[in-house]
Specification:
The complex is a heterodimer of chains A (110) and B (112).
Chain A: E1 5-7, E2 10-13, E3 19-24, E4 31-37, E5 44-49, E6 55-58, E7 61-65, E8 71-76, E9 85-92, E10 98-100, E11 104-108
Parallel strand pairs in A: 2-11
Antiparallel strand pairs in A: 1-3, 3-8, 4-5, 4-9, 6-7, 7-8, 9-10, 9-11
Chain B: E1 4-7, E2 10-13, E3 19-25, E4 31-37, E5 43-50, E6 53-57, E7 64-70, E8 73-78, E9 87-94, E10 102-103, E11 107-111
Parallel strand pairs in B: 2-11
Antiparallel strand pairs in B: 1-3, 3-8, 4-5, 4-9, 5-6, 7-8, 9-10, 9-11
The chains are: A mainly beta (110), B mainly beta (112).
Chain lengths: 110, 112
């Protein structure tokens, strides 16, 4: 499958900050997804986006499906300590396969 | 109730051994997957079964053989284990190709 370019690779957050991460691909996708992985666990789906231009929220999380269908971003507003973890973007065409980005590791700034 | 459960959680074994990882889902999904997460956390699909039929078979060494006895189970057998096989292996399931895989909590395989 295609590899997605996810940035930043890592970030430090301070409680209360808004954070942003994005994902780009050289190919189009029909669906974009964002997952979060906690240590020792599998990825958990946060948000799924189905249409170009779509903006979807899930609590403090907001994600957008880029107009070109080649990119997506995820915002976390008013971050809290439990937001730490690894966030993955994933894209899907019409088949069963998900292509994942390399992840953004979010840690708390000391 | 665990939706997708994998056993064992940890597996430490010597090079050359043969080992299996089991996966079961109780979500009623018809499609199951194996993904490999390497040390850099990159997730890559290995196999997928839909109603016990193999539908995705990525470029994976022949030493890896999936088996789906029914649509609720997908096991992964690995022959002649190598150091490079060390990784976390995730099982997942979905209903058809519908988005929103549910992942298991992973099996950390360490080959020494």
């Amino acid at each position: 499958g295609q590899q997605l370019n996810q940035s930043p690779q890592s970030m430090f957050i301070q409680e209360g900050e808004d954070v942003s991460m994005n994902c780009t691909s050289s190919s189009i996708f029909n669906t974009w997804l964002w997952y979060k992985q906690d240590p020792g666990e599998g990825p958990v789906l946060l948000i799924a986006l189905y249409k170009a231009g779509e903006l979807t929220s899930n609590g403090r999380l907001t994600a957008q499906f880029g107009i070109t269908r080649k990119d997506s971003f995820l915002n976390i507003s008013a971050s809290i300590p439990s937001d730490v973890g690894i966030y993955f973007c994933a894209g899907q065409l019409d088949d069963y396969k998900l292509s994942f980005g390399a992840g953004t590791t979010v840690t708390v700034r000391a | 109730d665990t939706a997708v459960s994998q056993t064992p959680k940890y597996l430490v074994t010597q090079m050359g051994n043969d080992k299996s990882i089991k996966c079961e889902q109780n979500l009623g999904h018809d499609t199951m997957y194996w993904y490999k997460q390497d040390s850099k956390k990159f997730l890559k699909i290995m196999f997928s079964y839909n109603n016990k039929e193999l539908i995705i078979n990525e470029t994976v060494p022949n030493r890896f053989s999936p088996k789906s006895p029914d649509k609720a189970h997908l096991n992964l057998h690995i022959n002649s284990l190598e150091l490079g096989d060390s990784a976390v292996y995730f099982c997942a399931s979905s209903q058809g190709g519908v988005v929103g895989y549910t992942f298991g909590s992973g099996t950390r395989l360490t080959v020494v």
